[in-house]
Specification:
Layout lengths: L1 E11 L6 H12 L11 E10 L2 H16 L5 E9 L9
Antiparallel strand pairs: 1-2, 1-3
């Protein structure tokens, strides 16, 4: 077994209102960043897992995201996996 670091990026679906993103956009405009057209806020969850392969780690963490880390009704998620020592996994 190897140790992998997985990152789960969770974002609201485009059709879901994002009040936090709107607040950030408005604050940025107030600070003089007039070119900001839209902001979407999300969350990044880092999970360290033991698995035989990077793909095994990806499957394990995708299942975690599907069951707990993301709400599939209103959110989407992406999982990236790398060796805990820092070597990126080349799979999409």
């Amino acid at each position: 077994m190897s140790t992998f670091l997985a990152e789960v990026r969770v974002m609201l679906k485009p059709s879901v209102n994002d009040p936090q993103g709107l607040s950030i956009r408005n604050a940025l405009r107030t600070l003089g960043f007039d070119g900001v057209a839209d902001v979407r806020a999300g969350k990044l969850i880092a999970v360290t897992v033991e698995a035989p392969t990077p793909e095994g780690a990806r499957q394990q963490v995708s299942l975690m995201a599907d069951k707990l880390l993301a709400n599939p009704v209103i959110e989407t998620f992406e999982v990236s996996v790398r060796d805990a020592a820092g070597t990126p996994d080349s799979a999409p």
